[in-house]
Amino acid sequence: MSLYFFEPTLECARQLDQNDRLSRFRSEFYLPPTSIYMDGNSLGLLSKRAEKTLLESLDDWRELGIGGWSRGNHRWFYLSERLGEMSAPLVGAAPDEVIVTGSTTVNLHQLVATFYQPEGKRTRILADELTFPSDIYALQSQLRLHGYEPDTHLIQVRSRNGRFLEEEDIIAAMTDEIALVILPTVLYRSGQILDMERLTKEAHARGILIGFDGCHSIGAIPHSFSEWGVDFAYWCNYKYVNGGPGCVGGLYVNRKHFGRHPGLAGWFGSKKDKQFDMEHTLTPAETAGAYQIGTPHILSLAPLIGSLEIFAEAGIENIRRKSLHMTRYLMDLLEHELPNMGFVIGNPRDDRRRGGHISLEHEEAARICKSLKENGVIPDFRAPNMIRLAPIALYTSYAEIWKAVQTLKNIMEEKQYKKFKNEREVIA
Ligand SMILES: *Cc1c(COP(=O)(O)O)cnc(C)c1O
Prior knowledge:
Layout: H1 10-19, E1 36-37, H2 48-64, H3 79-91, E2 98-100, H4 104-115, E3 124-128, H5 133-145, H6 150-153, E4 154-157, H7 167-172, E5 178-184, H8 196-205, E6 209-213, H9 225-228, E7 232-235, E8 250-253, H10 298-314, H11 316-337, E9 344-345, E10 358-361, H12 365-374, E11 377-378, E12 380-382, E13 386-389, H13 398-413
Parallel strand pairs: 1-11, 3-4, 3-5, 5-6, 6-7
Antiparallel strand pairs: 2-8, 7-8, 9-10, 10-13, 12-13
Helix pairs in contact: 1-13, 2-10, 3-10, 4-5, 11-13
The structure holds pyridoxal-5'-phosphate.
Residues 103-105, 132, 134-135, 184, 188, 213, 215-216, 236, 249 line the site of pyridoxal-5'-phosphate (PLP).
Keywords: Hydrolase, Pyridine nucleotide biosynthesis, Pyridoxal phosphate
Organism: Aneurinibacillus danicus
EC number: 3.7.1.3
C-alpha cells in the first residue's frame, strides 16, 4: 500500500496552490477557458511572452523586410544561436554546444548521418523496442543508405514488461558489433527516465557513441549532458517547452566533437562570418551550429524567445520539484478516489525514475479519454490502453488536478464512457 501524502479535499488543493512558489507563471499562459488542460506533454500552451516575441518578429518583417536578418527586435541571422544559448541550461550544456534548428526527426537524421560511421564489425545501431516510431523509421532509413538491412543491423532492446527498460539489458546489448546507441531520455508512454549518465559511461567504456532523444524530458527535468559526456542529443520544443505547434527543435553536440563534418551539410552550418563568401567549400562553424542545414524558420523560432525567458526565470530545478510534487499528488488522488476501477498506474513511482507525466492504463482507455474530453478534461491517449495525464508546473494548478480526478471518478461511477466506442481517433 502506498502512503497518502495529501488530504483528498479541494481545500487541500487550494492550500497547495497558495503555497506554490511558481504559481505566478500560470497567469502568463492562455489557459483554455472551459477545460482543464492535461496534455502539455504533447503540445504546450501559448504564453503571452511567446505571443509577444512572435508578434515582434512579424513587426520586423513588416517594417524592415530583409533588414530583419541583421536589425530589429531579434536579428534573425543570429536567432538559432541565441536560442541555443537560452536552451543550454535546460540540457546542462555550454551555450555553443546547443543549436535550435530542424525538427526532432530531421535532427536525428543529421546526427546519425554525422556520427554513425560503421567500421569493421562495428556496423550496428542499438535502440529499444519502446521508443517513438519516427526515431525507428529514421534509423532504418539511415541503415539502408549505408547498404545495411535494418532487420539485422538495427538492434532493439526488449522490455521485460512492456512498460520499462532495464539498464542492465541495454548494457548487455552493447556488444562489439554496435557502432552507435540511440535512446530516449524519458520513454514517451510510461514516462520512465533512463539513467543517461550510467548508459553513457558504459557505452564509452566499450568504444560506442551514444545519443539521446530528449523530447519527453526537455523542459520537464534537468539534464547534465556535458558533465555526463553524452555525445549528442536532439529534441522538440513544442511539448514541455511551449514553443508552439511545429516549433523548431534543438540539438546538442558535445564539444569534443566540434569540427566533425556534418553528415547532411548546408550553408547555415557555415562559420557565420564565412557564410556569405558563397564559396563551394563549406567551412563549418566550430560549434553545434555546424549541424544546421538551411535557412531557419523564423516564425516558428520566434515564440521560443519568450518561452525560454520564462524557463530562465522559473528555473528548471524549481520546475522539476513542482512537477514531481504534482505527479505524486495526482497518483495519490487516483489511488484514493478510484480504487478497484480497473486502473493501473503504469509509470515509475520513484522520483528519480518518473518523468513529467502519469500513465494510467485501463482496458477502456480510448473511450474514457473521449468521455474526459466531453467533460472538459484534456488528456491524451496512447493505444492500446493508456491515458497520459501531464500536470504542467508552469501552468497547471493543484485545484485543476483535484477537479480532473473528480471528473474521472464521476465518469467511472456513472459509466459515462459507455456511450463512446473504445477506438482511437485519427489523432490520439
Ligand atoms: C514528439 C516526439 C517526436 C516527434 O518528432 P518530430 O520530428 O518533432 O515530429 C519524436 N520522438 C519522440 C520521442 C517524441 O516524443
